[in-house]
Request: fold
Amino acid sequence: MKAAAADLGIDKIGVASADPFRELKQRLLRHRELGYESGFEEPDLDKRTEPALLFDDPQSIIAIAIAYPSKLQQAPKSEPGARRGILSRSAWGEDYHKVLRERLGRLEDWLRERVPDFRSESMVDTGALSDRAVAERAGIGWIGKNCAIITPEWGSWVYLGEMITNLPLPPDSPVTESCGECTACIDACPTDALVGPGQLNAQRCISFVTQTKGIVSDELMRKIGNRLYGCDTCQVVCPENRGKNWTHQPELQPDNEKAKPLLVPLLKMGNKKFKELYGASASAWRGRKPIQRNAVIALGNFKDPSAVPSLTAVLGDDPRYELRATAAWSLGRIGGPEATKALERALGGESDEAVVEAIKAALAAAGATSAAVPADGAGRAEREASRNE
Ligand code: B12
Ligand code: SF4
Ligand code: SF4
Reply:
């Protein structure tokens, strides 16, 4: 099986025992008590940690990893008047759920041909098990201080999936490498979401925040920078990822214009256009609203006055109050007479309380920013953007 993996399109494969994940259960309980969950996790901690609750008489779990690219070739530049956002690498190319399920399917077929009574249950991301805990037990990689599974071969630029089986395969040993004294990811995290080594407060993680649908706090909007979906900062700075960029999985290769799109056209994108552009990407699962809201935030963070008319249109016309409130914030961040005029005009016609509040706060901020030097924040956002590339 291991020798065949590469031909099946699998970059790393390992075997874990199907014993309960007892230590993980305690860890997940504590995680919940501290309020660090994102809400995207499977809520039933027994199911998360006892493979026998998911599969009749499990004998082993086969874990797989697929490597993905970390660099755009000839990335388009984000320029004044033509500002761009960035999708995290996990949303480049085709949806990894689909790609890994297809690879697991190939592996199932391969095993079924050889073991007639073979049974299995495959999962990628949305299954009950912790993909990282399974991968760690199966010797795929170690758990970095940034929480990611880091493989000695591919770094952390890997997606994970697994298959519970009725095959009594010999388990692999966990890898012995570790982060050592390094703390680069903890130091670089923009929101201090990494509260300890391998411990994340997901509520503060920008990756999570970009996937929410509501109004974001001022502090976190500033930290989002130009990220439209996900966040890669704690992996980009990781020395284990240095020079690692994987271009051999055809489905996972990025399209520059989708990975780093112009922001203004995103604001007017209808559902049809969204499906056409992002329907096949892992970023589509929350719909178009979070990406459009984040595009509005990014334009505010760039402080580019040329975005004022487009943001004014969102503030005046968008039926979604979250978008209108966010547009108010961005206009306040850009500041200047034109933005102030747009905010004042909108205040008279707005009936939603949350938006009215946002406009008032934005007017106060616009007063403050028009006196300040706007290029300052734009410079910061630019630097963030180029680090994210
Ligand atoms: C919910 C979720 C999120 C949430 C919360 C993330 C989190 N760290 O908890 C949010 C939305 C923030 C998120 C973000 C991301 N995610 Co996510 N996410 C998940 C999901 C669905 C569940 C994770 C979970 O249960 N978290 C709760 C924590 C407590 O459990 P855990 O992370 O699974 O495992 C931890 C414990 O086992 C603990 N642990 C166990 N033993 C030990 C021992 C010691 C000593 C220590 C210290 C810790 C420790 O450390 C593990 C790592 O954090 C998984 C898929 C799945 N079904 O597992 C994908 C998954 C973890 N995500 C993935 C990815 C790619 C990402 C992003 C990189 C996407 C992006 N670019 O924006 C970021 C990375 C953020 C980060 N630094 O973790 C990949 C990770 C691949 C890899 N190489 O590790 C997964 C596995 C999806 C997949 N199938 O490929 N994600
Ligand atoms: S994904 Fe971003 S916000 Fe989340 S822990 Fe990593 S660096 Fe911090
Ligand atoms: S940046 Fe350093 S501490 Fe963080 S995961 Fe990478 S090696 Fe570990």
